[in-house]
Amino acid sequence: MTLRIQLVRVLRAVRLNSVRLLRLAAFLALAGLAFMVWSLLDPRPIPIMAAMSVGQGLGTLSFVIFLVVVVQDAWRANRKRKLDDSKEEEDDK
Amino acid sequence: MLALGSAAVSAVILLWFLIKRPPLQWSTKVMLLLGLGLFPLGTAATGNVVGFQHTMSREFCGGCHVMEPFTEDVANSKSFTLAARHSRNPMFGEESCYRCHEDYGMFGPVTTKLNGMRHVYEYWTRFHSMTIEEALPQIEMFKPYPNTNCMQCHSTQVPTWYRVPEHAALDREVRSGQVSCASAGCHGPIHPTTDGVPL
């Protein structure tokens, strides 16, 4: 079983479709931005370290989720198009 | 300002997505690319620069309470410790802690920041709950202060340097680091506390 299939099964199990994943990514990005803004407004050791570790980690995670969703949607659309094409070919025959 | 602006634009886009719940079409994804990717990246990049610059400031070093005796001394215009006298020099100024304690060389800023992380770790695991009086006897350098840091400004090549008998006698030891410029009796102690006893 490929990693992608495993990932899809996990996402189905926790009912995380594209929209829900993107909402999760948006929440994570907002949390990450809050850490970054905190460090800019209150530049003390802890806020700066939190921004550079937790903040940027959350931001990166949210962007990775976004990329996964975009790639997955593109892959699905491509697959659907191929299926439709093959169906049309069969109908023509 | 740029970082805050990027963060604000990103937040507006993300809140629009969360509240308005637009259909997940091409245009929405482009907006999310801006809100989740480009603008947060701008905030992180500019925030990093601002953060790194601030970590060089004396105020940042004094953020840990056990550093206060040191930062207060260097800010004291009446102090004659070596650290205070250097801090009055505009080349050191508000960044005097960093200018004297930074590692020089190609990766100096990186290794300095990594050592700074160790300082933060030590602070949170050991010194955070201590009073300044309790902490001072336990504060020590991780490694001996390198003479090469002094030599970034003091070339030690000029004839006047060799005219000092101790310099001429200990030339090899000073250059090899066997004798520290900051030794007591030479130019140390640099800060107003030794073994936790305020001078």
What does this structure look like?
The complex is a heterodimer of chains A (93) and B (199). Chain A has 93 residues and is an all-alpha fold. Chain A has one domain. Helix content of chain A is 89%, strand content 0%. Chain A has three helices and no strands. In chain A, α2 packs antiparallel against α3. Chain A is elongated, with a radius of gyration of 20 Å. The model of chain A has no long low-confidence stretch (mean pLDDT 86). Chain B is an all-alpha fold and 199 residues long. Chain B folds into two domains: 55 residues; 85 residues, no CATH class. Chain B is 59% helix and 2% strand. Chain B is built from twelve helices and two strands. Chain B has a two-stranded antiparallel sheet. Chain B is elongated, with a radius of gyration of 24 Å. Chain B starts with a helix and ends with a strand. The mean pLDDT of chain B is 88. The chains are: A mainly alpha (93), B mainly alpha (199).
The amount of helix of chain A comes to over 70%
Query: How many individual domains of chain B?
Result: 2
The ordered string of helix (H) and strand (E) elements of chain B is HHHHHHHHHHHHEE
Number of helices of chain B: 12
Top keywords for this entry?
heterodimer, A: 93 residues, mainly alpha, 3 helices, 0% strand, elongated, B: 199 residues, two-stranded antiparallel sheet, 12 helices, 2 strands
Task: Provide a quick synopsis of the model.
With 93 residues, chain A is mainly alpha-helical.
Chart the SSEs and their pairings.
The complex is a heterodimer of chains A (93) and B (199).
Chain A: H1 3-13, H2 18-41, H3 45-92
Chain B: H1 2-20, H2 26-55, H3 58-61, H4 68-75, H5 82-87, H6 96-101, H7 108-127, H8 132-135, H9 147-150, H10 159-163, H11 165-169, H12 171-176, E1 193-194, E2 197-198
Antiparallel strand pairs in B: 1-2
Helix pairs in contact in B: 1-2
